[in-house]
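Fold this sequence, please.
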Amino acid sequence: MEEVNSFHTWIRKKLEQEGYIGDELEGKMKEQLLFVPKDLQKLAEEARFREKARAALQLYIDSLRDSENHVQMKKQLLEGYLQYKG
């Protein structure tokens, strides 16, 4: 049985709302998931339910100040997921 990953589910829904479908959707998902390592994905999922994890993740997000595209994409994804109510 495959474990449901709410971070992946959130990205998929977000991209579907942006109009991505089929192979484009899968490709864009893989691309965006490359920006956020699995340990950060797990921390983000925990942050939705545990205040200590949320505080740790928020500190990490606040530390992302580099203007490089991949850093800003990681920051946007993590911030967006924290605001997700699904």
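The chain has a mean pLDDT of 90. Residues 23 and 36 are 21 Å apart (CA to CA).
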